[in-house]
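User: Round two. Same drill as before: sequence, then structure, for each protein.

Assistant: Same drill it is. First protein:
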Amino acid sequence: DLVQDVFQKFELAAESRHIALQADLAPQLPAVRADLGMIERVLSNLLDNALRYTPEGGAIRIAIRAVGQELEVTISDSGPGIPPELREGLFRRPFTVGGARRDGGLGLRIVHQMLELHGVSIHLVESGGQGTTFRFSLPRTPA
């Protein structure tokens, strides 16, 4: 299972910082049309970013569910969030949060480009100023 494989890569780092990794996967998820290697890289980059900015004792959650003809993937963290003034160029250029360079730049640009190759876009979801949430959807394989 792709999500479990990706989670395993981050388990030790999360454990050492007392960050809970949570997977909320709907049962019997449908197949999708996607390059699994690229989607694994997308998930890895998003989880890596989340781990980097989630404080000790925080949580990172990935939720996957079928919505209409798509599989919706949501990754949330309990970090500081991204200030409104930095959101516009989020997938196009590096930026800083609280004086520290947040490499949303390269990691998020790669995520954005890989999903674009699938005809899909990624969105920063408004989460009421608490943490950061990204969402994208992949087309289901026709039955």
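Second protein:
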Amino acid sequence: MTKDVLGAHRWAIADGYIPPGSTGPEPDMTSHDSICMLNASDDSATVEVMVYFTDREPAGPFTLTVDPRRARHERINDFRSPERIPPGVDYCLVVTSDVPIVVQHTRLDSRQEANALMTTIAFTA
């Protein structure tokens, strides 16, 4: 019996922007972008993230692991190696996984006291 596959191998997020300021207690209310990943398979997923900018060469790959039958939420603010992603700069992401996963993008903008939270499912490629 064949299992249904949930997810895809490549995802694109075209609206990346880490707001450059925050209000409220840290780290919970720190302005951030994040990718939320679901690996519903029985296999560990190795995920690579490439970051594309408007005026420079891409950054990455950033390599992450999503364990089998688990979710992982990763703040783009926390990317460190091979480099940090600067706040206040537009960017786009391409997320590639060796097993099918589901990817969602979320942004918390807490620059003012009336916080804004947005989320969207990434585009499958």
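Strands lie at 8-17, 32-39, 45-53, 59-66, 70-75, 90-109, 116-121, 123-124.

User: Perfect.
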